[in-house]
Amino acid sequence: GVRSRVRAAPKPKPCAWDLAPILATTKGPEFGKPGARMEHLTAELEGWRAKLDSIQTPAELEKILALDVELGDIASRVGNWGALSFSTDTRDESVQAFMSKMENLTTELGNRTRFFDLWWKLVPDDKAQKLMPKDPEKRYYLERVRAFRPHTLLENEEKIIALKDITGESATDRIREIVTAAFKFNDPKTGKVVTQSELTKN
After folding, report:
1. Mean pLDDT score of the chain, rounded to an integer?
2. CB within 8 A of 102, min separation 6: which ones?
3. Distance CA 39, CA 31 (A)
4. Digit-coded pLDDT (tens) for 70-104
5. Residue 185 in contact with residue 194, Cβ under 8 Å?
6. Of 60, 46, 69, 42, residue with least CA distance to 138
7. Measured between alpha carbons, how far is 97 from 184 in angstroms, rounded to an integer?
8. Alpha-carbon gap, residue 74 to 102, rounded angstroms
9. Which residue, 85, 45, 81, is CA-closest to 63?
């Protein structure tokens, strides 16, 4: 009959992130390349610090933005790899160590380049308009930076806040995720006691 021809849908396979497009490896000499590139870009940005007030054209400003954009892209890929890996297994100590190391690194590099945002916020309005690039995405980014002028502290104070975030809100969120990942639940399909990640895979 019809009922005998109806087959149960196959059980879906557990989903695993393919993180190679984000970061090919997190170990060995090959992994040293993103870190070395971030250090190189940071050093180049630092080289502009004494020349910022002499910038007169959008083209000069775009040179700095190009460095900033590439640095942000690499930092984002490193951070996203850690976050996605952590989401699949919050108890993996190697991933936890990687995230901690990368968070410290990106915070350090961010503090070393923080001077650019602070300088841009203090540029007079008329000069800022003359230096604005034509690219709408870059203009939007620069306009958003200036929008936070009323809430900006001195450079050293901003650096302290960034450092405190590592051991403050960010660390608290990670501890919460590690603790809740150990919670046990009754799987309504199998009756077995499973973790949250195991439950969501079924």
Report:
1. 82
2. 78, 79, 82
3. 13
4. 999 999 988 888 888 887 777 788 888 888 888 88
5. yes
6. 69
7. 25
8. 11
9. 45
What single DSSP character describes residue 154? -
Which burial class, exposed, middle or buried, applies to 137 when counting CB atoms under 10 A from its CB (0-12, 13-18, 19+)? exposed
Spatial distance between the Cα atoms of 61 and 84, rounded to a whole number of angstroms: 34
Angle at 19 between CA 14 and CA 20, to 5 degrees: 130
Which residues make beta-bridge pairs with 194?
Answer: 185
Residues in the chain: 202
Six token digits for residue 162: 């960034």
How open is the CA angle 139-142-148, to the nearest 5 degrees?
A: 140
Distance (Å, whole) CA 60 – CA 29: 34
Which pair of tokens denotes residue 184? 């046990």
Neighbours of 23 (CB within 10 A): 21
pLDDT digits (tens, 9 = 90+) for 163-191: 676 555 555 665 566 566 667 778 788 87
What pTM did the predictor assign? 0.70
Per the CB < 8 A criterion, the answer to whether 58 and 133 are in contact is yes
